[in-house]
Amino acid sequence: MKYKMIIFDLDGTLLNTLDDLAGSLNFALAAEGFGKRTTEEVRSFVGNGIRNLVRRGLPSDVDEETAERVFNEFREHYAAHSNDMTAPYSGVTDMLKELRDRGYILALISNKADFAVQDLCRIYFPGLFHSAAGEKEGVRRKPAPDAILALLEKYGLEPGEVCYVGDSEVDVETAENAGTDLIAVDWGFRNRKDLEARGADVIISSPEEIFSLV
Q1: How confident is the model over 17-61, as pLDDT tens digits?
Q2: Into which CATH architecture does domain 18-81 fall?
Q3: What would the CATH number be for the domain defined by 5-16+87-212?
Q4: pTM higher than 0.85
């Protein structure tokens, strides 16, 4: 075992959540009289938390009061519809089970709202993660390394004993900031070309490929 802990991103890495995120964003935009965004536009908006997702979906000149109303509409709708069309990517669940069986400490860190992270992990990955956390007050979002560093302290690990797995430029920066190795995946919200341009050196195209790297 090259590593003792493997930390995963959620959206675009383990779960395809794009359609539900787009659905809730467009519901919230329509509620305030704004036009819909395409799924591909929403794909480019995700990665820095739901507040930034909503802000990117709005026209740049929208005032903060309106933006806050749209955010609250989104949050309420997504709380009820975060699992309408969401599903794990093919092979992901079997990969996690195998890694757990092999003795790795598995953790999940997401910029997604923590309530949604906990709900989706309970539905799709029960008992597979030793730790799972979403966006919380008082903890800086990725690409800040705070959540990873807290895990290192909790389990008494050094950065070199940990690998971080994600699908976006935010994840590339997160691993760099925390000093951990990175495995990028190209089946999520960013393609291989985008990941390479952002500095990802190790990129996999199927969950099974991870076993030869960890």
Answers
A1: 999 999 999 999 999 999 999 999 999 999 888 999 999 999 999
A2: Orthogonal Bundle (1.10)
A3: 3.40.50.1000
A4: yes
